[in-house]
């Protein structure tokens, strides 16, 4: 899947769902990397 096809909102939704359901850690790291590239604040989501 190309991360570029995801909107910021969908990327955040996917990240939150992945964390909630404790999916593969490598997939979560990939999502975190893309969120950092887009300057989406992960620490604000986890608060």
Description:
The protein has 47 residues and is mostly helical. It has one domain. The protein has three helices and no strands. The protein has helices at 8-20, 25-37, 42-46. The relative contact order is 0.19.
Number of strands: 0
Low-confidence stretches: none
Number of helices: 3
Most strands sheet: none
The helix fraction, in percent, is: 55-70%
Q: What average pLDDT do the residues reach?
A: 89
Which percent range describes the beta-strand content? under 5%
- Backbone shape: globular
Distance between the first and last residues' Cα: 28 Å
* SSE ordering: HHH
Structural class: mainly alpha
Give the gist of this structure.
This is Sporulation inhibitor A. The chain is mainly α.
What secondary-structure arrangement, pairings included, does this model have?
Layout: H1 8-20, H2 25-37, H3 42-46
Helix pairs in contact: 1-2
Structural key phrases:
mainly alpha; 47 residues; 66% helix; globular
